[in-house]
């Protein structure tokens, strides 16, 4: 008996083009200035510290980190630190109405149907939990976060 459904985002609930043509460019455009302005904020300092550990350079300055993050973007590296920072930047885009989370037309109705059948719904994606919640919270179908029982990202391991 199925008791839960775990869904991905890119290509499953949402068009991968939304991520590559809207979200990634939005974060890339703002990344450098964002880090320069917010590096000391606790929410930003934590992923920057994780990035320093990831690249084994505990004394790396912000400019080296910015360069590294741009390289990671170019390589499409699934860096947890990069994903966290992108999610923080995307938050302002969603909140400002710069974009809404894309969903395929049938997704919201199907998720609601599964939940009404008593199934627990979860998301696992290489995007940060923050980014997942934003996409579903500011989706074209409205706030779908109440449908989900939990979210998982690269903190629990990579996708197979």
UniProtKB/TrEMBL annotation:
InterPro entries: Enolase-ppase_E1 (IPR023943), HAD-like_sf (IPR036412), HAD_sf (IPR023214). It comes from the Bacteria. Keywords: Amino-acid biosynthesis, Hydrolase, Metal-binding, Methionine biosynthesis. GO terms for molecular function: acireductone synthase activity; magnesium ion binding. It comes from Serratia fonticola. CDD domains: HAD_EP (cd01629). It holds the Pfam family Hydrolase. Gene3D superfamilies: HAD superfamily/HAD-like. GO terms for biological process: L-methionine salvage from methylthioadenosine. This is Predicted enolase-phosphatase.
């Amino acid at each position: 008996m199925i008791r839960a459904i775990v869904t991905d985002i890119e290509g499953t609930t949402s068009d991968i083009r939304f991520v590559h043509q809207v979200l990634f460019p939005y974060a890339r455009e703002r990344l450098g200035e964002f880090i320069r302005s917010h590096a000391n904020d606790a929410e930003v300092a934590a992923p920057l510290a994780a990035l320093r550990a990831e690249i084994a350079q505990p004394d790396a300055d912000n400019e080296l980190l910015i360069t590294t993050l741009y390289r990671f973007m170019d390589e499409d590296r699934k860096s947890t630190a990069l994903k966290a920072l992108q999610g923080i930047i995307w938050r302002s885009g969603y909140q400002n109405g710069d974009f809404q989370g894309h969903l395929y037309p049938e997704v919201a109705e199907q998720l609601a149907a599964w939940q009404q059948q008593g199934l627990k719904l979860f998301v696992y994606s290489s995007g940060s939990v923050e980014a997942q919640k934003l996409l579903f919270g500011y989706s074209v179908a409205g706030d779908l976060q109440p449908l989900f029982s939990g979210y998982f990202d690269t903190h629990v391991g990579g996708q197979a």
